[in-house]
């Protein structure tokens, strides 16, 4: 060992032992994270994802997760999470209180899905 490695070795051993005693290395995930359904693995080619190339707008109140978490789930399925509805929007994921985005989506002929319908269709079961 070099002099530097020899000098730091006892500190590293002590730190590793402390983490093991305190349980830091084996700490479980927070309860909220454990309750969330896992998003599909994203190591598949982007074109293999179920919503590849689609645009999804999430609006209203989500029940199973926050709107930000739902947008992340949408993106994990290959879609672009959009904050507005346009003729390019493929799906409006509408929770209670969707309001003007729901009306606009309906007027444009955009597919509207509830949170339960979306999760049943794309595997994020609530």
According to CATH, the fold-level topology of the largest domain is Rossmann fold
Number of domains: 2
Integer-rounded radius of gyration: 22 Å
Based on helices, strands and strand pairing, what is the structural class? alpha/beta
**Architecture of the largest domain, CATH level 2?**
3-Layer(aba) Sandwich
Overall strand count: 4
| Number of continuous helical runs | 5
Name of the CATH homologous superfamily of the largest domain: BRCT domain
Strand order across the largest sheet: 2-1-3-4
> What are the segments in which pLDDT stays under 50 over at least 5 consecutive residues?
15-22
Share in helix: 40-55%
Mean pLDDT: 79
Principal-axis shape equals: globular
Strand content: 5-15%
Distance between the termini: 55 Å
SSE arrangement, N to C: HHEHEEHEH
Level-1 CATH class name of the largest domain: Alpha Beta
Biggest sheet, in brief?
A: 4 strands, parallel
Describe the structure.
With 126 residues, this protein is of the alpha/beta class. The protein has 5 helices and 4 strands. Strands 2-1-3-4 form a 4-stranded parallel sheet, sandwiched between helices. Strand 3, helix 4 (100-108) and strand 4 (111-113) form a beta-alpha-beta unit. The protein starts with a helix and ends with a helix.
């Amino acid at each position: 060992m070099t002099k530097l490695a020899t000098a730091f070795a006892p500190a590293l051993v002590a730190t590793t032992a402390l983490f093991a005693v305190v349980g830091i290395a084996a700490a479980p995930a927070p309860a909220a994270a454990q309750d969330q359904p896992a998003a599909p693995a994203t190591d598949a080619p982007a074109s293999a994802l179920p919503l590849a190339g689609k645009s999804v707008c999430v609006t209203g109140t989500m029940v199973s997760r926050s709107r930000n978490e739902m947008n992340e789930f949408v993106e994990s399925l290959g879609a672009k999470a959009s904050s507005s509805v346009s003729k390019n929007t493929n799906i409006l994921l509408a929770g209670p209180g969707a309001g003007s985005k729901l009306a606009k989506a309906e007027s444009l002929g955009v597919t509207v899905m509830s949170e339960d319908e979306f999760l049943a269709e794309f595997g994020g079961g609530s």
